[in-house]
Amino acid sequence: MADVFRGVWVVAYRELLRFIQERSRLFSSFAMPLIFLVIFGAGFGEIIGSMTAGVDYMQFMYPGILAMTVLMSSVMSGVSIVWDREFGFLKEILVSPLGRGGIIMGKAAGGAIVAVLQALVMLILAPILGVSISFIMVLELMLLIVVVSVSLSGMGLLVASRMKSQQGFQVVIQLIIMPLIFLAGVFYPVNNVPVWMEVISKVNPLTYGVDAIRQVFLGSEGAATIGVTVFGHTMTVLEDILIVAALGIILLALSAWSFSRQE
Predict the structure, then answer these.
(1) How many CA atoms lie within 13 A of 46 on its CB side?
(2) 3-class DSSP state for residue 77?
(3) Distance of alpha carbon 33 from alpha carbon 126, whole angstroms
(4) Using an 8 Å Cβ cutoff, are 151 and 159 in contact?
(5) Residues sharing a CB contact under 8 Å with residue 2, sequence separation 6 or more, in sequence order
């Protein structure tokens, strides 16, 4: 068992080193969320104004942008599998004692570590953007982000297990990421959209990750008015995270199965 944990940690640590060394990825991972915050937050904030009592548009959108950052980092962790396959390094990992499931968990853990680091940077910027946070809130958010990141990384790993080139992975993953982001309630409450869009949004797993993070920021009062409702029931943080975790277990299991079939 100790050898398995050591193997998972080695794979995860390698993912962290790769992220730090790839400056273009490091820059782009922060650039897009900040661009969204500046353009949408400053631009639409003046037009939309207050979303509900005591909550302006920036306070509403910021948790969504944080969740978006976690999604992009987690899903993109799958590109390392494609990179390893292209350059032959994957064969060296496969002959190690660590099983296919352990490799997938190591990749997911590495993606979660990167996501947590990115989230910490975003949280440091929160007071500058007028979003109040506390130490307890940061601890709660870290726990949520780990669960959301590990769960959503399964999506990227599942796609990567079927891809033979980085270019193909990038194209497919962008087609998946953009609809997930815009239908997850990052920029608007999912309860105030046309019925067909509301149904799709509530099938979207990222919706519940966004809602859980937003509830930590806004509290129960904010969730009561702009939180996600399912069949008239307003979702709690625990319910949101259980849905995300259940989906994550399914995606990671499918990723391990698909990976073993391909290799």
Answers:
(1) 4
(2) coil
(3) 12
(4) no
(5) none
